[in-house]
Design brief:
By secondary structure, the protein is an alpha+beta fold. The protein has a domain of about 55 residues: Nucleotide Exchange Factor Grpe, Chain A, domain 2 (Roll), CATH 2.30.22. It has two helices and six strands; from the N terminus they run H-H-E-E-E-E-E-E. Strands 1-4-5 form a three-stranded antiparallel beta sheet. Strands 2-6-3 form a three-stranded mixed beta sheet. A hairpin with a 2-residue loop joins strand 4 and strand 5. Helix 1 runs antiparallel to helix 2. The chain is elongated. One of its GO terms (molecular function) is adenyl-nucleotide exchange factor activity. It is found in: Cytoplasm. InterPro entries: GrpE, GrpE_CC, GrpE_head. This is Protein GrpE.
């Protein structure tokens, strides 16, 4: 009887070891699954951001053309209503960009930063600091801290 108990006890210990192995394997599989979910969520976020940036690039070209058109406003009164319509379209585009998390940058008077600005030229201006932006040719755009398009500027020399 004692031998039979020892045999059953040995079998029980073997089953317990096997159960612990299965439990450890199950826990590893669960952790792997959680890591996979996190990786997929991160990749989806990156793909969404990359797609949004690609779409934004296309629309930023149109926005830059609007900005250039507005810089050369016709002087006569007959075109003022047309200009008001164009400016309204531009403001709607800006609102759409802001809703996507995009923000413009590049202002006259800012210090030139080669990481954010692209120098389109230099022009001396007495009332500006050295290497300050004296004219914005086209605004820069960013999403969060990531620059989508650098600002094209004229820098004080």
């Amino acid at each position: 009887m004692e031998e039979e108990n020892k045999k059953e006890l040995g079998e029980l210990e073997g089953l317990e070891v096997k159960a612990m192995e299965y439990l450890a394997g199950w826990k590893r599989a669960l952790a792997d699954y959680d890591n996979l979910k996190k990786d997929l969520a991160r990749e989806r976020g990156e793909m969404r951001r990359d797609a949004m940036e690609a779409a934004a690039e296309a629309f930023l070209t149109v926005a830059a053309h609007f900005d250039q058109a507005v810089r050369f406003q016709p002087p006569d009164e007959s075109t003022r209503k047309w200009l008001a319509g164009v400016l309204h379209i531009r403001s709607v585009m800006d609102e759409a960009f802001h809703s996507l998390g995009m923000t413009p940058f590049g202002e006259v008077g800012e210090a030139f930063d080669p990481g954010r600005h692209e120098a389109a030229g230099r022009r001396p201006q007495d009332d500006a600091k050295p290497d300050a932006i004296v004219e914005v040719v086209s605004r820069g755009w960013k999403i969060g801290d990531r620059i989508i398009r650098p600002a094209s500027v004229i820098v004080n020399s």
